[in-house]
Amino acid sequence: SFHFFVEQVIAGLDRAATTMKRGEQAILTIAPDYGFGNTEVKRDLAIVPPFATLLYEVEILDFIKEKAPWEMTTDERIAAAGVKKEEGNMLFNNGKYQRAGKKYDKAGDYVGEDAPFRDDDQKLVKSLRVACWLNGAACSLKLNDFQGAIKLCSKVLDVEFYNVKALYRRAQAYMETADLHLAEIDIREALETDPKNREVKLIQKNLKQLQAESNKRDAKLYTNMFARTPKDFSVATK
């Protein structure tokens, strides 16, 4: 048996731990998808090869159940949101985008608009919300959930109309969903706010290429629709 904290270990152990009771013992067989995946990982007692199926003997010595947001004071909510956001950042940096996104969602729940935050806390609460929405949008882009990214960026832009990161990430999502006109609007507004932003300029170049390709396809489509051979014309006029 050993000590570990949920979300600081592989996904298989996380999932198993949430189903176990205090004092329970179990032998867990964890497939690579819920373990270390296709990468080699060095541990103190062993080197785990790629695509390894793992065997763990686990005992739950104790656990602390988190409070629900409505059970917390406003100070506790703010502190919990900060912790969840940092956990999300760690997961994101390790390529665990789906789990990171859930952390950002949870952090956002702690600082939702349902709680009566003090005026002195409003600036911090707003910054936490915006950070969680932006980071969640980054996760959505990594997971090809473009509508999810658009929704989260739009929430940011509802409260910070010229947030360059939100405009940039929403433009990326619009480009992936072929909403090129909307992407162009977001890119234009981002560059009005930050004219030298290299990332925005890069996707602007990509957008222009997509627009050129789209125009070529449209031109070819219209040509095929209205083109008539002499034979077609003679048949049509008889």
TrEMBL record:
PROSITE patterns according to UniProt: FKBP_PPIASE (PS50059), TPR (PS50005)
GO molecular function ontology, one term from the record: peptidyl-prolyl cis-trans isomerase activity
InterPro entries: FKBP4/5/8-like, PPIase_dom_sf, PPIase_FKBP_dom, TPR-like_helical_dom_sf, TPR_rpt
EC number, as in UniProt: 5.2.1.8
Reaction(s) this enzyme catalyzes, per UniProt: [protein]-peptidylproline (omega=180) = [protein]-peptidylproline (omega=0)
Pfam families (UniProt xref): FKBP_C
PANTHER family: PEPTIDYLPROLYL ISOMERASE
UniProt record similarity statement: Belongs to the FKBP-type PPIase family.
Protein name: peptidylprolyl isomerase
Native source species: Escallonia rubra
